Amino acid sequence: MLVFENQVNEKALMGLNRNCKQHIIEIVDASPTSQFYCHITTEMPNVHVYLIEHNLLETYTICHCFSYDQFDEDYSYQNLSSIQVKMMNQFLQKANII
Question: Cα angle vertex 68, ends 98, 20, to 5°?
Fold first, then answer.
């Protein structure tokens, strides 16, 4: 897991899709009072990036999720609050999926 505080660790993001990397940099730059935790997984040919933005000063936590395949520059993006992630986890458990 990568941890960013106030600025992106450019080396850690080197292998990412150019557009996805730029989006992550913009998110981090837009919130200088947040801490960021990043987890990157590769399941060939897909790459998944999970970026948690935690802001104690403004009391929020957002989960930014990126996915793309290694064939083109397009990527999908979704963001969820920590409350939404918790609800989704409870829903998956009730549905006996996890």
Answer: 115
Strands 46-55 and 60-69: antiparallel
CA 62 vs. chain centroid, Å, equals 9
Q: HSE on the CB side for 33, CA within 13 Å?
A: 7
pLDDT confidence bin for 4, thresholds 50/70/90: low
Backbone angles phi, psi at 85, to 5 degrees: -65, -45
CA neighbor of 65 nearest in space, from 49, 81, 53: 49
The number of CA neighbours under 13 Å toward the Cβ of 78 is 8
State the Cα torsion 40-81-76-13 to the nearest 10°: -30
pTM over 0.85: yes
Length of the chain: 98
Structural domains of the chain in order of their starting residue, each with its CATH number: 2-94 (3.10.450)
Tokens of 6: 């106030």
